Batch of 2 targets.
Target 1
Amino acid sequence: MASPLRGEVVRLYKNLLYLGREYPKGADYFRDRLKTAFLKNKDVTDPEKIKQLVARGEHVIKELEALYYLRKYRAMKQRYYEETKN
């Protein structure tokens, strides 16, 4: 793997590992799935394919961030606003 792409992949892995700490099913579950996904693609050498995989990882980061923001929003809404019963 080329040097600049290797750096991107390592950065992506670290970011995902950091975000996985708050995953709803647990950090261990997320870490195992993340490791499996990266090991599955460890032999990819085509730079275009690596860029596609990194882009897919960036998309997963955005989805995780959206999940966490939604969870925090729901918790705040539940805490500060009373539900009206009809």
Target 2
Amino acid sequence: MVKEEKQENRGSVEFQVFSFTNKIRRLASHLELHKKDFSSERGLRRLLGKRQRLLAYLAKKNRVRYKKLISQLDIREK
């Protein structure tokens, strides 16, 4: 029963990138309304950096998983 509830691996690179992408999109829409919210902008930049480092790691380790992930999340390749 516990294994059924925990289908996704929350520690996987894909799940972490997915989570960061959701947070980034939410913060970006917030910043469109609140242009002078500089602390949220700083948080957005930190999340972008974390996601970029994870994607670089995944690209180095497994290029196929990397390509599949960026196509699913509609992220530009750097």
